[in-house]
Amino acid sequence: MWFWGVSAVIFDKGSRTINDACLIYCLPGGGVELNPIPISLYLYILCYTISLQQRGTSAANMSQKEVNGSSHRGKVLTLETMNQNVRQVEYAVRGPMVLRAVQIEEELKKGVKKPFTEVIKANVGDAHAMGQKPITFIRQVLALCAYPALLEDDKFPEDAKLRARRILDGCGGQSIGAYSASQGIECIRKDVASYIEKRDGGIPSNHENIYLSTGASDAIVTMLKLLICGEGRTRTGVMISIPQYPLYSAALTELQGVQINYYLDEDKCWGLDVGELRRSLTAAREHCNPRALCIINPGNPTGQVQSRQCIEDVIRFAKEEGLLLMADEVYQDNVYAEGCVFHSFKKVLFEMGPEFSSVVELVSFHSTSKCYMGECGFRGGYMEVVNLDPEVKAQLTKLVSVRLCSPVSGQALMDVVVNPPQPGEPSYATFTKERAAVLADLAEKAKLTEESFNNVPGFHCNPVQGAMYTFPRITIPQKAIDQAKAAGQAPDQMYCMKLLETTGICLVPGSGFGQREGTFHFRMTILPPKEKLKYVLEKIAEFNAQFLQDYS
């Protein structure tokens, strides 16, 4: 015989209590045998049996879902479960305006009728995309580095070959396809240090303080990672100018740093006032721990060039308040206005004497993407650290090593920028002619843009002293402001979106950079070729006149 099951016999129907239980056995001849058991044992067997049945049902259901290719859970990564800091990041330069511009381009390709034939992306400082030609010597050296067999070609000048060989000798396997040291190729860092010394009138620069980077942006974010720590009122605060380049606000949001705004003075050509710095710092100390001050000089998006006196005042302020200085100097060759001169923060710091130069912590940034080069896609850049604690510097080196190295092609490009042809070399005349032509053209377009916008009713445009952008203040009627707010838009965003839909011209609203309450702006690059820039300026003026009429 074998075990078949359990049974309970209920005798008391009123109380529903179990008065007896038994085991059921099947007999060989087909009969059954009942053996009484204690009720406690019966209950144990019953619970165990139910448990087995539930497990079997769950396993069967799971197996069926696996067969169907679906999980018993939802998505691991959703908007609610993703990193909320990333979700809150905003980067206006490539935000909704650009996304819509790309859509319009696709519509034009499909034959959709528009009141224009092309989209003009005047939203970003991408020189080559706007038609600027590469500097011959830069591309010659890069071509030689990328394809060393060309070193045997007589069409390439000897000074280009000399630089290419030196760069390749610094590469593993003499190939720019090899990883470099995390801090960057040593001979290139030495060239960067020599360039800084020459630029700053002989003030020493140590190549061990140079870090080659993936553009300046990567280096800026890396320094912010080192800086930001603490919780609540001890959380790191970083002072940034308003208007600002959105990289700073985006990085601070992602890293959970505290953004401390200080406002540039639009009525004084976007000047920087130490009184405003102090107001901002005092207010911030109520809720965070301010530890760094960021300066963009020449300015983006505002195009101002800081005077030497202003830089001295900022350095004194940083020393008094115990702040690390971050000097974003990627537009250092882009100075156009008469009487304006670029002064590096490092040069001014050391000329102020040991009282400052031995104490103030400074990190300066430069890039291959701007100036006369405009080589954005190669992602070359560097930062120089001054007075950084040696133990912190070791941590910085460790941090950059996590990503192995910056693009070696970008490092090579940076080497050509800091080590250009010298007098007497075969490429010197062509190089200086091309460089001067690019900068002269930008200066002419800066003046043209300022004058044109100041002739548009409701516009006010400060002189574009440097960099690659204009940031005019625009007048938006109250009717348009109300309509934008009802639609959940910033008024200048609505203005720029309507401009895009009407003319195909893509700009960035001032609200994406920050601005004083009640003012409205947009940022526009001055990079388009002169004739196209004139067309852009005319179309903006026409649109603005119609916009004011529609909402008056």
From TrEMBL:
One Pfam family, short name: Aminotran_1_2
GO cellular component, one term: cytoplasm
Reaction catalysis annotation: L-alanine + 2-oxoglutarate = pyruvate + L-glutamate
GO MF annotation terms: L-alanine:2-oxoglutarate aminotransferase activity; pyridoxal phosphate binding
UniProt-listed InterPro entries: ALAT1/2-like, Aminotransferase_I/II_large, PyrdxlP-dep_Trfase, PyrdxlP-dep_Trfase_major, PyrdxlP-dep_Trfase_small
Pathway: Amino-acid degradation; L-alanine degradation via transaminase pathway; pyruvate from L-alanine: step 1/1
Necessary cofactors: pyridoxal 5'-phosphate
An individual GO BP term: L-alanine catabolic process
Domain Aminotransferase class I/classII large: 156-540
Keywords linked to the UniProt accession: Aminotransferase, Pyridoxal phosphate, Transferase
Enzyme Commission designation: 2.6.1.2
Family: Belongs to the class-I pyridoxal-phosphate-dependent aminotransferase family. Alanine aminotransferase subfamily.
Annotated PANTHER family: ALANINE AMINOTRANSFERASE (PTHR11751), ALANINE TRANSAMINASE (PTHR11751:SF480)
Subunit structure: Homodimer.
Official protein name in the record: alanine transaminase
Species for this entry: Gadus morhua (Atlantic cod)
Upper classification of the organism: Eukaryota, Metazoa, Chordata, Craniata, Vertebrata
Gene that encodes it: si:ch211-217a12.1
